[in-house]
Specification:
This protein is an alpha+beta fold. The protein has two helices and three strands. It has a three-stranded antiparallel β-sheet with strand order 2-1-3, covered by helices on one side. It is elongated, with a radius of gyration of 16 Å.
Length: 76
């Protein structure tokens, strides 16, 4: 089984990388972008029997900074 974890900055946390991407898109002529939030995707190849709760524990202990980030788990 695989899991895909999407980690994003929480609302209200400044996203300088997202701002830089938005600026660069504007400089390339893509003026229709009102905002950009940048995150990361982590794909895990899991052993049989690994639960979504265990993946959540992985996120909270290592994969996401719970102070400023949130996460979503997709089991594949």
């Amino acid at each position: 089984m695989k899991a895909r974890v999407h980690v994003m900055l929480k609302e209200g946390v400044l996203d300088p990388q997202g701002a830089a991407v938005k600026h660069a898109l504007g400089a390339l002529g893509f003026e229709g972008v009102n905002g950009v939030r940048q995150g990361k995707v982590i794909e895990l190849d899991l052993a049989d029997g690994t639960t979504e709760a265990q993946v959540g524990e992985m996120c909270e202990k290592l994969l996401a900074n719970m102070v400023i980030e949130s996460y979503r788990i997709d089991l594949l």
